[in-house]
């Protein structure tokens, strides 16, 4: 049996059969259904077919993840939501999802190898850090023309495919809300600045202070590593600062929850003694005591759009068209969700 | 460059080089280090090498997951922890992780296809249900001699590789604890019985009641679908039962948290008006109000051991030895973690 027979039965060209079965490019719903029905009647399995029809097709979308020993990466809301969105879209397009854990200590990163050994047709890079090795690995992908997409990370001076959220605006609105509540001394627990999204948050924080005419003070800046523990470790430091800050904005919910628990242990209550806002609007934010005010980020949708962007790019390459490669950065909106932790009795 | 050169430099046989680079079989740490060092010096990349050395090797371990549209599967504690453990072990053995979403509506499941199209060398099956299609797909894998391992699911009458937790004992201890607190009318919110782990929990629940001489009553059994919403939907039903149960044991934390929140909405408090125990000991259990008593399950370790079991099996196949294939079921212990929700004022 051959692609020819499927094409014949569906009444389309062989190229169209390939495109449908590889999910490349826009195809009319009706045509797609006809091809899939024909393939089914002839007892063809699309993912098996894909390998035979198109050269250098693995049928896999790769997701490159930072590898940190013993960290339960899938249990972090941020990664798990993005992966859920990626998984949903990958499945819809008939691909499988290959997870690739990078080990920085090997020295040079070589993402192109995954394409050269035909492990993936395109890849999404999560948790990229702004380092020289990373920049070189991405430059190499770009030079080779391998389709890739960054999620939640941008590299200044480069024009890579990317899906990001508007963390400047998200942080701006959180801090603005605290200012409107009357808070003036607002601590900021940020993550490491090698992530562009940490730098975005700092920018939003400053913007809100500037607009309100409140001085930006470096003694109110704290750095954690986005873990609950790093937030907990800062709880006492912040509580003992003289004068104690009115409020704290934390760059993710995990650190905020660490603060909340650390404060509770010394009798300080978020939403009563000190206002607290987290970031991510994770499932956990809804069930803490008090419930955590947080900035909602559409991580699931970001994962979905990253896959769509890659599909568009692969189809554009196949059609020798530049049309799809114009809009290469998707920037999605965030939203402040107010709960009890950001209340504060300023008397 | 060839495997020969690496073998020569490391002073070992070519077969040993293959085994090290494919992570098959037990190899002395020293030998392994020597081979890896030689490969590195000769600028060989193990995962690229693997493809050349061994026929029918993809270098991928597959994880077959149930596909449910719009459910954020990676955001459930259960899946995310198992996947973290799988990812950790897969990485250690130099493999990559291929996620395969099954779509039940396609009718027949064909897991063997993933092996025939050389997408995976072995696979782990998560969230398997006890259905005819599933049993046929597994029988087919077994017949073909493809290495696979079930996690958290067993099929009576079959002897497949599997890693499971002792859910009978876990449930038994939870219900026993409630009985020791003086509770007699103990509701049980279970998940669907197509999962062996749901049936295990029911068995543990009955065992504890039987031992205490408390009658088993079907009017105290409720079924959810392991989602928070399904727990919340049962909150009022249970609260309005006459007489109201003293305590509820829920088969996972999500459903327990749904109950807790549903009760809170009608003024009923877990740990005061009614005792509540969940299952999984998820991160969220620690931060609810009140904190949730729960049964800890070593999901991360279960994922890790599933990979190890597959590695042992693949090495046993290569060595034509039966030694590794004797112990095919790993049953890991659970542990009750007592927090405030299981308190109950029985006056």
Name the features:
transcription (chains A, B), 15% strand, alpha/beta, 347 residues, Rossmann fold, 12 helices, 12 strands, transcription cis-regulatory region binding (chains A, B), 3 domains, 434 Repressor (Amino-terminal Domain), homodimer, six-stranded parallel sheet
Under CATH, the topology of the largest domain in chain A can be stated as: Rossmann fold
Biggest interface and its residues per chain?
A-B, 45 and 44 residues
Structural category of chain A is alpha/beta
Contiguous runs where pLDDT drops below 50 for at least 5 residues of chain A: 48-56
The shape of chain A, in one word, is elongated
Label the CATH architecture of the largest domain in chain A.
Answer: 3-Layer(aba) Sandwich
How many distinct folded domains of chain A?
3
Determine the CATH superfamily of the largest domain in chain A.
Response regulator
Report the helical percentage of chain A.
40-55%
Strand order of the largest sheet of chain A: 2-1-3-4-5-11
Question: How would a textbook summarize the main sheet of chain A?
Answer: 6 strands, parallel
**Fraction of residues in β-strands of chain A:** 5-15%
Please give the count of helices of chain A.
12
What does the oligomeric state look like here? homodimer
Average pLDDT of chain A, rounded to a whole number, is: 87
The CA-CA distance between the termini of chain A, in Å, is: 80 Å
Total number of β-strand segments of chain A?
Answer: 12
C-alpha Rg of chain A, in Å?
A: 24 Å
* Series of H and E elements of chain A: HHHHEHEHEHEEHEHEHEHEEHEE
């Amino acid at each position: 049996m051959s692609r020819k027979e499927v094409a014949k039965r569906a009444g389309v060209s062989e190229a169209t059969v390939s495109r449908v079965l590889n999910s490349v490019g826009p195809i009319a719903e009706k045509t797609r259904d006809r091809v899939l029905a024909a393939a089914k009647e002839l007892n063809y399995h699309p993912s098996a077919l894909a390998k035979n029809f198109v050269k250098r097709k693995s049928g896999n979308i790769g997701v490159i993840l930072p590898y940190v020993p013993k960290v339960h990466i899938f249990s972090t809301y941020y990664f798990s939501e993005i992966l859920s969105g990626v998984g949903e879209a990958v499945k819809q397009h008939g691909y499988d999802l290959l997870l690739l854990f990078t080990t920085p200590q090997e020295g040079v990163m070589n993402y192109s190898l995954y394409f050269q050994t035909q492990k993936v047709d395109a890849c999404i890079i999560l948790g990229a850090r702004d380092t020289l090795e990373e920049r070189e690995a991405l430059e190499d992908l770009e030079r080779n023309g391998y389709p890739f997409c960054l999620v939640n990370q941008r590299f200044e001076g480069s024009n890579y495919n990317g899906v990001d959220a508007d963390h400047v605006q998200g942080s701006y609105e959180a801090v603005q809300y605290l200012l409107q509540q009357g808070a003036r001394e607002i601590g900021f627990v940020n993550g490491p600045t090698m992530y562009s999204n940490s730098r975005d948050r700092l920018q939003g924080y400053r913007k809100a202070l500037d607009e309100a005419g409140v001085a930006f003070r470096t003694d109110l800046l704290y750095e954690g590593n986005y873990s609950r523990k790093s937030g907990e470790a800062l709880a006492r430091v912040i509580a003992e600062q003289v004068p104690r800050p009115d409020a704290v904005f934390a760059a993710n919910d995990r650190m905020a929850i660490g603060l909340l628990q650390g404060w509770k242990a010394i009798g300080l209550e978020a939403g009563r003694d000190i206002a607290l806002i987290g970031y991510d609007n994770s499932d956990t934010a809804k069930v803490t005591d008090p419930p955590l005010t947080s900035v909602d980020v559409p991580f699931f949708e970001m994962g979905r759009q990253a896959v769509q962007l890659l599909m568009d790019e692969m189809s554009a390459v196949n059609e020798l068209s530049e049309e799809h490669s114009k809009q290469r950065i998707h920037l999605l909106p965030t939203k402040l969700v107010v709960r009890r932790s950001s209340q504060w009795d300023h008397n």
